[in-house]
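Handout for the seminar on molecular recognition.
Each group receives one record of this type.
Step one: identify the two inputs.
Step two: read the structure output and locate the region that could contact LWAPGFLV.
Step three: write two sentences on what you found, then compare them with the reference statements printed after the record.
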Amino acid sequence: MYQDRGLKIRTLHVRDIRFPTSLELHGSDAMHVDCDYSCAYVTVYTEGDVEGHGLTFTIGRGNEIVVAAVKSLSPLVVGQDAGQIFNDFAGFWRKLTNDSQLRWVGPEKGVIHLATAAIINALWDLWAKLQQKPLWKLLVDMEPEQLVSTIDFRYISDAVTKQEAIAMLKAMQEGKEEREERMIRIGYPAYTTQAGWLGYSNEQVKALCSKYLAKGFTAFKVKVGQNLEDDLCRCAMVREIIGWDNKLMVDANQVWDTEQAIEWMKQLAEFKPLWIEEPTFPDDVLGHATISKALKPLGIGVATGEMCCNRVMFKQFLQAGAMQYCQIDSCRIGGVNEVLSVYFMAKKLGVPVCPHAGGVGLCEMVQHLQIFDYICLTGTTEGRMIEFADQQHEHFENSIHVLHAHYIAPKMPGYSTALKAESAEAYEYPNGSKWEEMFAKGLFPDPRKQNVFVCQAN
Ligand SMILES: C[C@H](O)[C@@H](O)CC(=O)C(=O)O
Ligand SMILES: [Mg+2]
């Protein structure tokens, strides 16, 4: 499984891709009211004919900053031997995240870490393609020692050690084949957010709840937090459609103070939400712990993670009892290697992982990670679901396959991260053909005419 040496990374290309989702308020929430789902899209070219694609998600303005950060990191990647990277992936990951100067603009957080994720995701896509396996299968087929060797345990060895991680994988070897077969045949349970974006009208929400109920969904997430009266109305309306046997989750996207979150959620408790997601500022570990404690008697858990900036923060949330649902994000932290470390900590501390996937390409990626978790680490889907947002799937070469509200394990080699060439061309910002059309129609201001800094991909 170790990769042969001799495959040099020739060059790395990054593009600023944006989709105009704000026009229809897709993806909107109480904090992010007008997002344009976007990504910094990386292609790693080797001297062979296999390419790796990776991306990191943003919501529009600022995507050019992530693109610039990818460019700053690229000298650490170009010219490297891909096989050597994969043979010591933790070592390479440490080099990328700990460059002695670049780390000052992190470390391991914010824009530079989003950029790291795009590059690391592209390298995993490359590795899986070289092995001609979907990423989940690449992970599943690795020996425990090899899989764990990809993780940098610095700063988390007080929570989980390399040896413990290896032991966890070894303890779950039995039954792997049946679990794999189940993922291919039935798939992994999903919940939908698509019915509950904040900017949707009540009529839209009703129609979408009915649509997803008919498709077999049994869990629905709605956005809350802007106006209590509206939230009470919307939750009542959604409950009326989905009934009380199905699950309802609510997401506030960080709008509240700690006490405000508790009070607001007491008002919404009558609708029996399974969790409140991102009730307050994403770095506030003790605030989340206080909210968790206060809401526990009401049967409401706290979910967070989509803006949890690295494994160290996840460690503290998990150790402090500040998250009852751990929402890893495939782009917020440093790609697959770091996400794996969070899975091991969550397993050890008994917290279920329910990945965040509201964004471009996130559903495509997290399905691989969660399927790995089921087959190799936890062996259960109990209390766990993958988020499903119906956004931009048509632009991916190997998009998701969700059937009866289950993600069917992907078959094609790679990490499902490759955009269709024509989509990448059309939605490249600001010069892509779709953007030219939208500027001409006056739907968006043309940044090239505004004396605004735009970082062009080269
Ligand atoms: C801005 C994004 O759409 C965000 O609302 C996604 C999110 O919070 C989720 O999917 O959960
Ligand atoms: Mg969320």
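Reference statements: The mean pLDDT is 97. The chain has 17 helices and twelve strands.
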